[in-house]
Amino acid sequence: DTFDLSIWAEAWEVGHIGQYALNSAIVTGVSVVAILVIGAAAAYAFSRYRFRGRSLAMGLFALGLLLPLQSYFIAQSSIFTELEITDTRWALIIPYTAMGLPLAVYLLKVYLDGLPEELFEAARIDGAGDIRIFRSVAAPLLRPGLATVAIFSALAAWNEFLLALLYIQDDELKTIPTGLLAFSSRYQTDYQLLFAALSIVTIPMIVIYIVFNRHIVDGITAGSVK
């Protein structure tokens, strides 16, 4: 009969959503920034330079798009155990960055391939070096592509469950997907609080998508028409 929004406040308090959201924001933010910086630099190199091993490197990034997480999970877990980074945020940031790079590299490379070569030649004639060209010419023109990569990467990292469940045991470091398990037990699930919490954690991604919608569409369609 009436709208009762107090359940949102109860879900936030009972489920410790604030701490989990902060952890998710840190992990997602660092991962997305790393993906954008490394992915843009790699895409620029693959698009503008011809060097030995280029095809092999592109093939390795293609494997990143094809191989499921389960195919290399055991090896990854062994490496993280040796490095003693399990149960730390780095145990999530590193694989999230690695999983997001293949899509970022291929999407940004296609976008760079569609830019006029004359832009880069003019900058080089004016005396700009490789780093200056990348920072002053390529990076500003990559904004639609970067926005697309940022949204896809943020969604993947924000919603990832398996690695967060297996690597993070400290309740203070848990992210939202694993933190929401607090609303479920072996014999009972509080669906009212669970769905209230789910609606809360979904809002940030919806807002981000709405804000960057135009850039996302431009980035996806880049290179589709020659």
Describe this structure in words.
The longest helix has 32 residues, at 17-48. The radius of gyration is 21 Å and the shape is globular. The mean pLDDT is 84. Helix 1 (6-14) packs across helix 11 and helix 2 (17-48) runs parallel beside helix 5 (90-113). It has helices spanning 6-14, 17-48, 54-66, 73-83, 90-113, 117-125, 130-141, 143-159, 162-167, 176-179, 191-211, 213-221. 31% of the residues are buried. The protein contains twelve helices and no strands. The termini are far apart. By secondary structure, the chain is mostly helical. The protein is 74% helix and 0% strand.
**Whole-number average pLDDT?**
84
How widely separated are the two ends?
56 Å
Instruction: Give the overall shape, derived from the CA principal axes.
Output: globular
Number of strands: 0
SS summary, helix count: 12
Proportion of strand residues: under 5%
Radius of gyration: 21 Å
